[in-house]
Known about the structure:
Blueprint: E1 6-11, H1 15-24, E2 29-32, H2 35-43, E3 51-55, H3 64-72, E4 76-81, H4 86-95, E5 99-102, H5 106-119, E6 127-133, H6 140-155, E7 159-163, H7 171-174, H8 183-188, H9 195-201, E8 203-204, E9 210-212, H10 226-239, E10 242-246, H11 253-261, E11 264-269, H12 273-288, E12 296-303, H13 311-318, E13 322-327, H14 330-339, H15 343-346, H16 351-357, H17 360-365, H18 380-388
Parallel strand pairs: 1-2, 1-3, 3-4, 4-5, 6-10, 6-11, 7-9, 7-10, 11-12, 12-13
Antiparallel strand pairs: 8-9
Amino acid sequence: MSETPSVVVVGAPSKSMRQAEVSLGKTVSFSFLDEDVLVAAHRRGVPQSALVVVVLGNPPKENLGGVRELASLGAHVVVVGPEKDADLILAAMRAGAEEYLVEGADDEIRQSVAELALRNTGRALGRVTCVYPAKGGVGATAIASNLAGALHRSGDERVCLIDLDLHFGDVLSFLDLNGGYSISDVIANIRRLDRELLDSSLTHHASGIFVIAQSEKIEQAEAIGSQDITTLLTFLRQHFDHVVVDGLRGLDDTTVAALDECNRVLLVLTQDVPAVRNAQRCISIFERLDYPTEKISLVVNRFQRNSKISTDVIRDTTGMPVEVLVANDFAALIKSINRGVLLADESPKSRLTKSIDGIVPLVRGVPEVAARRRGFFGGLLGRKAAVDGAQ
Length: 391
């Protein structure tokens, strides 16, 4: 069984770290110790693989001596401070901290702690890509399914395709798969699933990608909340190089949780007025949710070069450039769907296949993008206002 990432928290009481424990508790092992006990443990050589989070109290610099001693003993130390103070950050780094985080920035703390804790086990978190349709019928599922296959083919990487439309998802139908181990099954068994058991439980497509959907277990879907989605995606990132998310509709809590967790959002639209207007609206909401612009990529599906709604029109309307043009080849697509295979297997030379293959560098080759920068809409109430205000 693979080693569970572990985090040891010392220092002042921290609501943010308790929130991180709730969010990551099924995928990361947390313990809260006195600083003296932890220093003594490190002197004995344990727990060397744990990430140590030192929460600074008041006055904050009084805890930096412990940071310095833990770091000198080989511990990987992160400091959580009360504020963004340049002098305090510099002092923490000089004491040996690997990162400085600000108390109250719950989402940033959760993501950083998860990534650093996993890195201490010798592994790295995979990347999450959300394929988000500006409106229904723009072909998001076709792009998500074939992108997952393209990622697997191009680097022989472990890829998981997850359908988060918990009631009427299309991924299983597109790939001619029967429902098996569901999303709710994975969530319920996260604590006991190592990689071997996970691989044997999940649905496996002939192309080599793993697939998770809620399938026919619709009655269990209502019990899946936003926190479950955060936990699920954090868990999947520990076991897959890439997680491609389909089935996002609207902006309910589970959809926003997935968007928060992903590294890149592929916002899919077509060259028609409703789709472009909805894309503009989506971008406005993403801005209110404080997503960095480099996290969002506009993808025009079924591209028609002679359309009056050109890429320039889309750019001027949405305020963002089009990054990806996906060719229009309905005949090839419908053949692949009817056979339950990917485009690359049905029509490897199709312009549509090559278009989707061209998305791979965008998803894989960009620098890591933080899921969200905190700002005016960083807190829960502000984030809810951001979504509700755009309805």
